Amino acid sequence: xxxxxxxxxxxxxxxxxxxxxxxxxxxxxxxxxxxxxxxxxxxxxxxxxxxxxxxxxxxxxxxxxx
Length: 66
Hints:
With 66 residues, the chain is mainly alpha-helical.
């Protein structure tokens, strides 16, 4: 692998992890603020994993086109 690819994967994974944590904690804080549940824990975890993973895949597809 090229050095450029290593940098993409390092920063892409860091970006995805950060985005997953932000999504998780935003919904967790919304659930704590309101009396009613905004979304359930299972949906919260699913969104926190699937959206950043999908974004990483799309970014890789865009990045890998030459």
